[in-house]
Amino acid sequence: MKVYVPRDAAARALGADAVADAVMRAARARGLDVQLVRNGSRGMIWLEPLVEIDTGAGRRAFGPVSPADVAAILDGTSDKALGPTDDLPWMRAQTRLTFARVGLIDPLSLDDYRAQGGLAGLERARALAPAAIVREVTDSGLRGRGGAGFPTGIKWRTAAEAPADRKYIVCNADEGDSGTFADRMLIEGDPFCLIEGMAIAAHACGATRGYVYLRSEYPDAIAVLGAALAQARHAGLLGARMLGQGPAFDIELRVGAGAYVSGEETALLNSLEGRRGTVRAKPPLPALQGLFGRPTLVHNVLTLAAVPAILAREPEAYASLGLGRSRGTIPLQIAGNVRRGGLCEVPFGLTLGEIVHDIAGGTASGRPVKAVQVGGPLGAWFPPALFDTPFGYEDFAARGGLIGHAGLVVVDDTADMAALARFAMEFCAVESCGKCTPCRIGAIRGMETIDRIRQGDATAIPLLEDLCETMRAGSLCALGGFTPYPVQSALTHFPQDFTPMREAAE
Question: Alpha-carbon distance 172 to 182, whole Å?
């Protein structure tokens, strides 16, 4: 009997370690031969700790489980039984490509990884010329999953054609947006997928060195990825030869100090070089002159982790999913006031309303949904009137929003949108690197201006709108440039929250 108890940080925070200990104690007391596997999370956070049991006839799920529930589960009398894991509505609604193995395997077993299709993409890539790999990634329609949505194939071709004596692959795992956790879940649940994606990218552009920049607030992810890198070197996947063939490629794990702005690619490169994490002006683009002045591919975790499935399945299969110029699947990270929060990987194209009501199940409070913020703390607030918006890059941009890292935070009708708009300005002021004036000064003036409006000074509204346009157009990076999204959307869709009458009524 195999018993699966997640080692994912969210599951551990909800008591998974105590459940795992209880499983082994109960098994010994009953004389059962139990193999305990600490897998990644299936993404159903409201059911964590989720325990799965495989007796040879498929995996059956139980959750949420406490240590007191374990004895009944092993005795077959538990009321926490949910049925076959793959038949649960949350799982059946998904098209898992990037997260195909997360929750299914032991994340630190390279044998498990291979048995579930791992390394098929790299092995196929090694048989292709670098230009052919770039063409397949381009044909797949993959776009950067870290925020900007820039076509991945164009970035790869730029780096591949750049002349240099050394090139780099940099994975941006500095996941700092509120309501986002997919990078952490992927690293903790399937780290070899990220390693494989980086190796394919290295072969495509001629890089010999890779770096993963991982935030210090993720100690579990740091431990898992460090162990996986050591195994990959021991197995010959990394090192002097890739899969026993040339050329050399290795990956180094670097831990960031926690500055939000270091999630911006050029600030991240400065930090990797041992400098202060401040934003660089572009051009030059990192693909031409990045880390240590060499051509560098900088990608989000989910972008690189999508590559192995594309190469294993060929680009047409990936490009057949989605809508418009938003191709493939997107791992949605659903948080806030929702009945069912967690990670759900689906093709682009579902409407925002389908995600909020059908997948997330509406609010946990039972009150009406007031708004959804998509794209992290700098994403726009969408009211129910815009819930017919398809989840796609151009579709959201056409309505004044952005997909970003595909994190969704739901609030009900008790939320104060003016306070949330002010928080966006405060967040920008605290996290600004201070290099450009629109961000450094504009965010502080933004807080002051919102305070004036809330105190009844309606003449400050045009000033706030003008300030937002200045920050959007003049900021050096997306921190200052995107802060206007939540502010302007809140002001546009919820003007009543910016009046002093609301505070007086409360």
Answer: 13
